């Protein structure tokens, strides 16, 4: 099957759904600590920085782990990697029950919990291989909706915990076990997909030598990194600054995450029609503007809520459009490796802000400096995307896929 010309098959849509569900479940597991951070903070008498470090450790490990996960997916396929990683993530999820009274052990288990954050680099090459170039932006955006696992965690984890402090971990572990079994039998790699024969190190080195890998990494560190940072720290910010109770803070943080989920496929869909660099520039420019608004500490209702939700829309759109660029300029055999590096940088973009926000609040008693830093980064990304990335071309000098037109959208069109 030639996915460059053939329309998506039923198998393509089946794999898209399975990958998205798996991504959501493992992201829920990855984000299990954040909605309960204030509970852990009170239980273990943690400082603001210690609490920030606790929620940031899984982000760091999950981000760095995407590099080998993407390269291993290129080699062994998502059919092996998705059920394997889902099953292994059960271990740290259940260990959270055992170590809840020790901060040191919580950090160790949080390190292991980072494994759940690596499935992003498994799903991207799977989805990318099954869909033709003209439809990859939307398909990858739909897959990206799996980051809604953060919203699921923010909303359901504290509510489930009210019925038993260990219950959220048991529920997620069972869900991961069921998914691992289903994925083993239902996920299939595209027949005839290119399988690299070079070593893991040489493939990662080749991906790392592509200039576009690092350009996309920088943009994704702002877009997706912002999503991750808000996902893990927003409950703490809302509880500390606006004095919300943990459940209400988690609910509002889940709403933020839900908006990012909805706008990610919109970013991919727009990128199928206009250049994704332009979509990225507009989205990040919007984030820069609203971050300035939030830096002035508006009342939560309605000013703060509106500012945070518009930022969520911009970050979600940018995340979808950046990976539309990845699908345009990366050779199929290198998609996993490049995705791993770009995804790692995106996750690392989410590792530092919670630590910075916690440290700034501890030192200054305010979050304004943190939001101004976000504005500066988003503005820099906006300018770079518009000024440099609009002229990007696929490796080998080929033109990128043309945006869809009504004529091109007909069967057989490209």
Helix content: over 70%
Structural class: mainly alpha
On the 0-100 scale, what is the average pLDDT? 81
- Give the radius of gyration: 20 Å
Low-confidence stretches are: 394-414
Alpha carbon gap, first and last residue? 15 Å
Q: SSE order, as H and E?
A: HHHHHHHHHHHHHHHHH
Report the sheet-strand fraction: under 5%
| Number of E strands | 0
Write up what this structure looks like.
Helices cover 75% and strands 0% of the residues. The protein has helices at 10-30, 37-44, 48-64, 66-76, 78-98, 103-113, 120-130, 133-144, 149-161, 167-186, 200-208, 211-241, 246-271, 276-295, 300-329, 335-364, 368-387. The relative contact order is 0.16. Mean pLDDT is 81; it is low at 394-414.
Task: Name some characteristics of this structure.
single chain; 414 residues; mainly alpha; 17 helices; 75% helix; disordered C terminus
Short characterization:
This protein has 17 helices and no strands.
Topology:
Blueprint: H1 10-30, H2 37-44, H3 48-64, H4 66-76, H5 78-98, H6 103-113, H7 120-130, H8 133-144, H9 149-161, H10 167-186, H11 200-208, H12 211-241, H13 246-271, H14 276-295, H15 300-329, H16 335-364, H17 368-387
Helix pairs in contact: 1-5, 1-7, 1-8, 1-9, 1-10, 2-3, 3-6, 3-12, 3-16, 4-5, 4-7, 4-16, 5-6, 5-10, 7-8, 7-16, 8-13, 8-15, 9-13, 12-13, 12-15, 12-16, 12-17, 13-14, 13-15, 14-15, 14-17
